[in-house]
TrEMBL record, chain A:
<keyword id="KW-0472">Membrane</keyword>
<keyword id="KW-1133">Transmembrane helix</keyword>
<keyword id="KW-0813">Transport</keyword>
<feature type="domain" description="ABC transmembrane type-1">
    <location>
        <begin position="83"/>
        <end position="272"/>
    </location>
</feature>
<dbReference type="InterPro" id="IPR035906">
    <property type="entry name" value="MetI-like_sf"/>
</dbReference>
<keyword id="KW-1003">Cell membrane</keyword>
<dbReference type="GO" id="GO:0055085">
    <property type="term" value="P:transmembrane transport"/>
</dbReference>
TrEMBL record, chain B:
<protein>
    <submittedName>
        <fullName>Sugar ABC transporter substrate-binding protein</fullName>
    </submittedName>
</protein>
<keyword id="KW-0472">Membrane</keyword>
<keyword id="KW-0564">Palmitate</keyword>
<dbReference type="Pfam" id="PF01547">
    <property type="entry name" value="SBP_bac_1"/>
</dbReference>
<feature type="signal peptide">
    <location>
        <begin position="1"/>
        <end position="29"/>
    </location>
</feature>
<keyword id="KW-0732">Signal</keyword>
<dbReference type="InterPro" id="IPR006059">
    <property type="entry name" value="SBP"/>
</dbReference>
TrEMBL record, chain C:
<feature type="transmembrane region" description="Helical">
    <location>
        <begin position="71"/>
        <end position="92"/>
    </location>
</feature>
<dbReference type="GO" id="GO:0005886">
    <property type="term" value="C:plasma membrane"/>
</dbReference>
<feature type="domain" description="ABC transmembrane type-1">
    <location>
        <begin position="67"/>
        <end position="283"/>
    </location>
</feature>
<comment type="similarity">
    <text>Belongs to the binding-protein-dependent transport system permease family.</text>
</comment>
<keyword id="KW-0812">Transmembrane</keyword>
<dbReference type="InterPro" id="IPR035906">
    <property type="entry name" value="MetI-like_sf"/>
</dbReference>
<dbReference type="GO" id="GO:0055085">
    <property type="term" value="P:transmembrane transport"/>
</dbReference>
Length: 287, 432, 292
């Protein structure tokens, strides 16, 4: 943390390079703490049966790397099927949010109608509620609708998130009024303005919502834990919790399960992180 | 590899306590519902679904396929769809079936889950539709499905099991314990556990479980008061028993991880040959033949220590069945003496729930193998076996008791406190 | 704005979102309150029992443990997660080669599913796990430290997992705040001879004070809502003797099971809501101010 100095004497330069080295060292240290446990688990998931995972002097690199654990774990519980269930829920929620939240966000931002303020207030008010506080009543509603123990039941409450409606409303608000006015003069109706002017301007926000929705659905635990009971319907997180409760005797399999839950999401994130960081600054998301 | 542990048969006959606790006495949801009685003389036709619990596996699938084929042949124009649910989470599964109105027409339920279903008005009162029920089935089985404060009987007793003690002879030999003179009392068990501990330097164990409600019942403590409105098992005798467990734990006669939440369980450790004693149904050695064949020659059975618990399974009919006549006929068919006897022929060590089968010599004569001996031991213990008789006792109560006992075993509270807490909690959870 | 659309067009656009909002957010909020005065269960019940559930709350020893745990969680997490991410953000703010990679790595624990990372930590903290194995081997300890079964150790294990997982998230919040601190202030302080630590306290902290308050509130609320870490590390029973539970944990455990006690769970939910209300209200005021 050296101050930016506008002098350039050798001693200053030297101290600055020391400062940079120090920063790198600290950054590497925190990176090791952040990613170390994950790498360790990755290594465990690749270790063969012949290699002891609990030995006194464990090695980070597997001596005989093998993918056996990833097929073995599927014999123990249908983990890839669970992953498929998680994807199903995520896709439902992504589609729901892209359509529903976009439409509602647009109407709240760009269309005059009676009751707009009230509806906006309703969406805003729900942000104050911790999700866990309404989960029981949501559960009862889902059960009464006959959707208990179904993936639709898991996806439904998050089909259109209030936060996404508000994010999109803000994004649509940022579009200059003149564009709309010009289009109106040209005789464009509301659907055309929505399609050709508004949508292209919020692609970034839509991308962020897609990423966040996917991560949210993929990582969600408490809600699917309540809704799902059948072993063939579990989502990945619930299945993983179940796996580690049942097969604690082989940490390699549990590690493989954890990797199946982690690797896809981390890869997706690493690829899309640029869009993501741009968007996260726009508002504190995720409770 | 099997997806889930079979809970009902074989490995662990854990009483998957579930359901809920409605203190009886009041009117219940079930009795306020209109109960149809079924005319069983009508011509049968149509389709019903039949749900079993953890019985679709190499061992039992052939039996059910044949059973269903036989029935469909006898009654042309009928179709039975067989569904099987895994051992884990059955109570939750059944409750979600009930709440979404998709409970199969004929369903295999243990008494506690059946009780939750009865309170929700989901099961048919069989006593009403089948006047001969009391002459056909054993009393102990019927009484497990007849609930205080609710009129009627809600399942045909199907198969009954109880616990037998099993010992690993290798570990017994190491500790110098005589196989012909195995412990028959709890104190004898602790003494033997000390021998194992001393002989193996604390590497192997005999005991590896926390006491549960059955152990408390063994001490003669009344689980509930006579009208089933309060739990009353916090007696000094029960506290003394827990105290003995706590002492054994402190002395190192049990694995340390017994108390931790991800403890693999006594059954797993027995199969890994780290502990020398477990309890399971008379079917246990037979089931080991498929799962752990190398262990089979090392295992011998002996009568249960203390009170033998009774585990019932029953066949119930959904009150909302669209085809009640067929459902009832099939439930009777599944639980008929001939079919039950054939079933227990596969599930050795259990007894059928029919009166006619109780004196059947087939179940009480052994072929001389340890597996056969254990099966006979199970069958012979059954008449003395007792069920908890408290369907109000549910999973939450059970979890809480378990936690309190764990605290007592670590010495954080006295056994009496643990029992008082568990009783108070269970009573506060009983709905009024 | 000129009206160029028929009156019902906006309603068509808002309707799907509004339906979901009403059925799964507004109605549950109202309904939870009603349910908390009944003995509703998953399969049965539905009589009004007045304050019965709340009376049971007061007598529930597990809830007392849960509230103590929540207080500990808040007291430990709030300072840690208010300051550590700030230091990390200062470290990761100024341009440096490869910084994007570091930021991405710091964010990995945030993105990772809580269940998966809790499973990993469980494996590290196990009696025979990496940490205990290494420490016994190195002769630092004789017996394994019971990270997963000790009453307080388990709670602190969960806290450390929460802190580890939250670092990157709050760092990103600070990064955008640091961008708004005038670099000239730093220079002026440096000219006055203030060292880095002095400058941190006198320039950086005042510059990001608003964000620090925001972060502290967010941490507080999420500490009150803790569940997954405890559920995975301590197991379904909440540690040995059920002492390591949280309010959400109890909501889940009383509502699950074959015939869950939804009434009691709702009373717990109302309690959770009341607990989070003050920080949430602060947050709402705070956001309004920022908007203005």
């Amino acid at each position: 943390m050296s101050a930016e100095q506008h002098t350039n004497t050798p001693s200053v330069r030297r101290s600055r390079s020391w400062a940079t080295a120090g920063r790198y060292f600290l950054l590497l240290l925190v990176a090791a703490i952040s990613v170390g446990p994950i790498l360790w688990e990755l290594s465990t998931s690749l270790k063969s049966k012949a290699e002891d995972v609990y030995s006194q002097t464990p090695s980070l690199l597997p001596q005989h790397p093998t993918l056996d654990n990833f097929s073995e774990v599927a014999r123990a519980v249908p983990i890839y099927h669970f992953a498929g269930n998680s994807v199903t829920v995520a896709v439902m929620q992504i589609v729901g949010n892209l359509l529903g939240a976009t439409a509602a966000g647009y109407a709240l931002a760009k269309l005059q109608f009676r009751g707009r303020k009230l509806i906006f207030g309703l969406f805003l008010s729900t942000l104050v509620l911790p999700a866990e506080a309404t989960i029981i009543s949501q559960f009862q509603t889902i059960v009464k609708l006959g959707l208990g123990d179904t993936l639709v039941g898991v996806a439904l409450p998050g089909l259109i998130g209030a936060i996404n409606v508000l994010l999109l409303r803000n994004a649509f608000m940022a579009i200059p009024e003149e564009l709309d006015q010009a289009a109106i003069v040209d005789g464009a109706n509301v659907w055309q303005r929505f399609r050709y002017i508004a949508l292209p301007n919020v692609v970034g926000t839509l991308a962020i919502i897609t990423i966040l929705t996917f991560i949210g659905a993929w990582d969600d635990f408490l809600w699917p834990l309540l809704v799902l009971q059948s072993p063939d319907k579990l989502t990945l997180t619930v299945g993983l919790a179940y796996l580690q409760g049942t097969f604690v005797n082989d940490p390699r399999l549990v590690a493989a399960g954890a990797m199946i839950a982690l690797v896809p999401i981390l890869v997706i994130f690493a690829v899309l992180q640029r869009y993501f960081f741009r968007g996260v600054g726009e508002g504190a998301i995720k409770g | 590899m099997k997806l889930f542990k079979v809970a009902a048969l074989g490995s662990v006959a854990v009483v998957a306590l579930s359901g809920c606790g409605l203190g009886s006495g009041g009117s219940s949801a079930a009795s306020s519902k209109v109960q149809q009685s079924v005319d069983s003389s009508a011509k049968l036709s149509g389709t019903i679904s039949f749900q079993t619990w953890a019985l679709k596996n190499d061992k039992f699938t052939p039996y059910f396929t044949k059973l269903i084929a036989d029935f469909e042949k006898q009654h042309p124009g009928t179709t039975i769809n067989w569904i099987d649910q895994p051992g884990d989470g059955y109570a939750d599964k059944v409750s979600s079936e009930i709440s979404s109105n998709s409970l199969p027409d004929v369903v295999n339920l243990p008494p506690d889950i059946a009780y939750a279903a009865v309170k929700a008005g989901a099961l048919l009162n069989l006593a009403k539709s089948d006047p001969k029920i009391n002459q056909t089935y054993v009393k102990s089985g019927l009484s497990d499905y007849t609930y205080k404060g609710v009129d009627g009987t809600y399942a045909y007793p199907w198969y009954l099991g109880t616990d037998v003690s099993y010992w690993n002879t290798d570990i017994l030999k190491k500790a110098g314990i005589d196989q012909s003179n195995l412990p028959t009392t709890f104190d004898g068990l602790v003494a033997a556990a000390k021998k194992v501990h001393d002989a193996t330097g604390g590497k192997q164990f005999l005991m590896s479980r926390k006491p549960n409600l059955y152990d408390i019942m063994s001490t003669g403590a009344p689980i509930m008061n006579s009208d089933g409105t309060k739990f009353t098992f916090n007696t000094d005798a029960a506290a003394a028993m827990i105290g003995k467990y706590a002492d054994a734990y402190k002395a190192g006669y049990m694995p340390r991880e017994v108390l931790s939440s991800d403890y693999q369980g006594n059954d797993t450790l027995f199969k890994k040959q780290q502990v020398g004693w477990t309890t399971s149904t008379g079917y246990y050695i037979t089931s080991l033949k498929t799962d752990n064949p190398t262990l089979v020659p090392k295992v011998i059975g002996s009568p249960a220590i203390g009170l033998a618990p009774l585990y019932s399974q029953g066949i119930s009919v959904s009150a909302k069945s669209k085809n009640p006549a067929l459902a009832l006929a099939f439930a009777q068919f599944v639980t008929s003496n001939a079919n039950q006897t054939a079933f227990v022929g596969v599930a050795k060590g259990f007894l059928p729930g029919t009166q006619a089968a109780q004196s059947d010599p087939r179940f009480t004569t052994s072929d001389g193998t340890p597996a056969g001996n254990a099966a006979v031991l199970g069958a012979k213990t059954l008449p003395k076996a007792k069920s908890l008789g408290a369907p109000q006792w549910d999973q939450q109560d059970s979890d809480y008791l378990d936690q309190q006992i764990a605290l007592a075993m670590t010495g954080k509270q006295t056994p009496k406190q643990a029992l008082d807490n568990a009783v108070n909690k269970a009573n506060s959870l009983l709905s009024k | 704005m000129v009206r160029t659309h028929r009156w019902f067009t906006p309603w068509i656009m808002v309707l799907p979102a509004l339906v979901i909002l009403c059925v799964f957010a507004l109605w549950p909020a109202v309904n939870t309150f009603f349910l908390s005065f009944t003995d509703v269960r998953t399969l049965s019940g539905g009589t009004i029992v007045g304050l019965d559930n709340y009376r049971k709350l007061v007598d529930d020893p597990q809830l007392r443990a849960a509230l103590v745990n929540t207080v500990v969680y808040v007291v430990v997490c709030v300072p840690l997660l208010t300051f550590l991410p700030l230091l990390l953000a200062i470290l990761a703010e100024k341009p440096l080669r490869g910084l994007a990679i570091f930021r991405t790595i710091f964010y990995f624990p945030v993105i990772a599913s809580a269940v998966a990372v809790a499973v990993i930590w469980k494996f590290l903290l196990d009696d025979r796990g990496l940490i205990n194995g290494w420490a016994t081997h190195a002769g630092i300890i004789q017996d394994a430290v019971p990270f997963l079964s000790g009453r307080w150790l388990l709670l602190f294990s969960a806290i450390s997992l929460t802190v580890w997982k939250g670092l990157g998230y709050y760092m990103v919040l600070y990064l955008s705040a640091l961008g708004n601190v005038d670099p000239q202030l730093h220079e002026a302080a440096a000219v006055d001879g203030a060292g880095p630590i002095r400058r941190f306290w006198s320039v950086t902290v005042p510059g990001v004070r608003r964000t620090m308050v925001l972060v502290a509130i967010l941490v507080m609320v999420s500490a009150m809502r803790i569940f997954t870490e405890l559920y995975i590390l301590g197991g379904k029973t909440g540690g040995v003797g059920g002492q390591d539970v949280s309010v959400v944990f109890l909501i889940q455990s009383s509502a699950s099971g074959a015939d869950g006690r939804l009434g009691y769970a709702s009373a717990l939910s109302v309690l959770l809501f009341v607990m989070t209300l003050p920080p949430m209200a602060l947050l709402a005021r705070f956001n309004r101010k920022v908007d203005e």
